Amino acid sequence: MGILERKIRQKENMRTNILAVALQLVKEEGWQSLSIRKIADAIEYSVPVIYDHFENKEAILFELSMDGFRLLDRLLEKDKRKYADPEERLRAHAETYWTFAFKNPEYYQLMYGLGMPCSSPGKAKPEFNSFRDHIGEAIEGIVKDNKSSDEETCFKIHAFWSVLHGLISIVMMRCSDIDDTQMNKKVMDDTVNAFIKNL
């Protein structure tokens, strides 16, 4: 390996390390407490080293959010390969989205700006629409199979996502000592079933 290749690999490894440490700090202390100084202290490098790899904290947040979107998309792609029937696929997508949100709350909060400013304003995130595209394909398949009117398909896709995201947001943002996870999951399941029935 030449000097140039080694330098490129070292730079990539440092970026990966910075992102991993930032995510770990967030898991321990929350998004609001993340700072360049804390990341630098955690990896035992100076602040300028962080700035050699990322323009600012927002650039780190943006990269982390992209990691979250990519992870969610891989899970949704598995559903797509596993379920040919659009109804089963839509149920699987809802389940995957729900599970992803609660297994990866730090990613979910950052990806959708829950309880914090959205990361890196001004940068478009086409990945933001990945879930919409997956559920849209399933909903269009159900509408076609049911020979229903597809005039309001776009509205139905938006409504479905809104319900799921709304319920997840309520659960995540609620400060409660009551663990009503099972009830919330039942609400989600019932809502998905009712939604599919009415397509």
From TrEMBL:
<dbReference type="InterPro" id="IPR009057">
    <property type="entry name" value="Homeodomain-like_sf"/>
</dbReference>
<keyword id="KW-0804">Transcription</keyword>
<keyword id="KW-0805">Transcription regulation</keyword>
<dbReference type="Pfam" id="PF00440">
    <property type="entry name" value="TetR_N"/>
</dbReference>
<feature type="DNA-binding region" description="H-T-H motif">
    <location>
        <begin position="35"/>
        <end position="54"/>
    </location>
</feature>
<dbReference type="InterPro" id="IPR050624">
    <property type="entry name" value="HTH-type_Tx_Regulator"/>
</dbReference>
<protein>
    <submittedName>
        <fullName>Transcriptional regulator, TetR family</fullName>
    </submittedName>
</protein>
<dbReference type="InterPro" id="IPR036271">
    <property type="entry name" value="Tet_transcr_reg_TetR-rel_C_sf"/>
</dbReference>
<dbReference type="GO" id="GO:0003677">
    <property type="term" value="F:DNA binding"/>
</dbReference>
<dbReference type="InterPro" id="IPR025996">
    <property type="entry name" value="MT1864/Rv1816-like_C"/>
</dbReference>
<dbReference type="InterPro" id="IPR001647">
    <property type="entry name" value="HTH_TetR"/>
</dbReference>
<feature type="domain" description="HTH tetR-type">
    <location>
        <begin position="12"/>
        <end position="72"/>
    </location>
</feature>
<dbReference type="Pfam" id="PF13305">
    <property type="entry name" value="TetR_C_33"/>
</dbReference>
<keyword id="KW-0238">DNA-binding</keyword>
